[in-house]
C-alpha cells in the first residue's frame, strides 16, 4: 500500500481530488434542488407523502445502472464525469427532500407566529427563521448524503471514470490487496474529513445552540 502510494503519487492525488469534487458537487446541487421541494412538502402537508415517497423510490434505482443510462439521457459520452454528477445529484435530492421537509416541520408554530408578528413573511421568514432553525436536521441529512456519495462515487470506476475507485479496479486486476486497502483508507479519510467539515459548518450556522449548551 505504502509502496504504491510512493511510486504513484500523481495518480493517487489526481484520483483523490476527482473523488472529492464528484462527492461534494452533487450534494451541493442536491441541497439547492431539495430546499424548494422540501419547502413545498412542508408548507402544503398533503404533498408530503407523494413527494417523500417519490424521493424514496429514486434512491432505490441501482447506481451502476443509473451511471450507464445517463449518457443516453443527457447525450454525453460514457466516460464523462457529468454522468456521475447528475446521477449522484438525483440520489442527493432523494435523501435530502425528506430531511429538508422534516427540518422545516420541526419549527414550532409559536415561533412562526412570533416571526410573523415581528413582520417576517414569505421568503424573509423562510431564510431568517425557518431555515436557520432547521439547520441541525438538514446538517444530519447532509452528513448521510455526503458519506453515501463518497461510497457511490467509487462505483464509477467500473465504467472508467477515474477517482479513488480506480484503486479498487487496479488492485483487483493485479491481485494486489494493498492497493485495494489504500483505496478503502483514502475513502474513509475523505468521508471523515467531509463529515467533520459539515459538523463544523452546522455549528457555525447555529451559534445559539452553543450559547444554550453553556447554560
Model description:
The protein has helices at about 1-5, 10-45, 50-60, 65-75, 80-105, 110-115, 120-155, 165-175, 175-205, 205-215. The longest helix has about 35 residues, at about 10-45. The chain is mainly α and about 220 residues long. The protein is built from ten helices and no strands. Helix 2 (about 10-45) runs antiparallel to helix 3 and helix 4 (about 65-75) packs across helix 5 (about 80-105). The relative contact order is 0.14. It has a single domain, classed as MetI-like fold. The protein is elongated and about 65 Å long.
Task: Return the CATH architecture.
Answer: Orthogonal Bundle
> How many distinct domains?
1
Q: Mind telling me the C-alpha Rg?
A: 20 Å
Task: Could you tell me the CATH topology label.
Answer: MetI-like fold
Give the rounded overall mean pLDDT: 88
Number of DSSP E strands: 0
CATH class: Mainly Alpha
Number of helices: 10
Classification by helices and strands: mainly alpha
SSE order, one letter for each helix or strand: HHHHHHHHHH
Shape: elongated
Q: Specify the helix fraction band.
A: over 70%
Largest sheet: none
